[in-house]
Write a structure and sequence with these properties.
Number of strands: 11
Strand order of the largest sheet: 3-4-5-6-7-8-9-10
Radius of gyration: 15 Å
Order of helices and strands: HEEHEEEEEEEEHE
Strand content: 35-45%
CATH superfamily: Calycin beta-barrel core domain
Number of helices: 3
Largest sheet: 8 strands, antiparallel, barrel
Distance between the termini: 37 Å
Shape: globular
């Protein structure tokens, strides 16, 4: 396993701030399908429903990221990108690109111990996602994630709840 995977195995994913956490992150457990439960509105997912992302660990230690959703006209939309870790001292912080060398921040702010749901943000308040292994989450989980996002300075009223049907 290459450098990124090895460092991510020691990745700290939850905690009281974005810089440190208390639980060890297991990149192998994170790989696979995640449903988008909620997100901040942004141009590259405008109007999409039924959004699901698949993460696959590459041999070189990078991560393949494939987003799939349904446009308002019913047609599918797929975008394939890659993630890398630019700074080994901040293993919770990834950079994701879907076009050439243009990368965006990707911070796993919280992940439950059984890898059933996660809160993803960025180093600014520009992006926020709630992800789940299933197309829906319970009200208790929703409250916990919203409280976590709010405690990290995110405006949860900006979230769009994604139709998964």
């Amino acid at each position: 396993m290459k450098t990124l995977a090895m460092i991510l195995l020691c990745f700290f994913a939850s905690g009281d701030d974005k810089e440190a956490g208390k639980e060890i992150f297991d990149i192998e457990k994170y790989m696979g399908d995640w449903y988008e439960i909620a997100r901040y509105d942004h141009s590259f997912e405008k109007g999409l429903s039924h959004v699901k992302t698949t993460y696959t660990l590459n041999d070189d230690g990078t991560v393949k990221v494939e987003n799939r959703g349904i446009r308002p006209d019913g047609k599918p939309k797929t975008a394939t990108g890659r993630a890398k870790m630019p700074d080994p001292s901040r293993p919770h912080h990834l950079r994701v690109s879907f076009f050439l060398w243009f990368y965006s921040d990707y911070d796993i702010l919280y992940i439950d111990p059984e890898y059933r749901y996660a809160l993803i943000g960025s180093s600014s308040d520009k992006y926020l996602w709630i992800l789940s292994r299933t197309p829906s989450i319970s009200d208790d989980v929703k409250k916990k994630i919203l409280d976590t996002a709010h405690s990290k300075g995110y405006d949860t009223s900006r979230l769009i709840w994604v139709e998964q049907g």
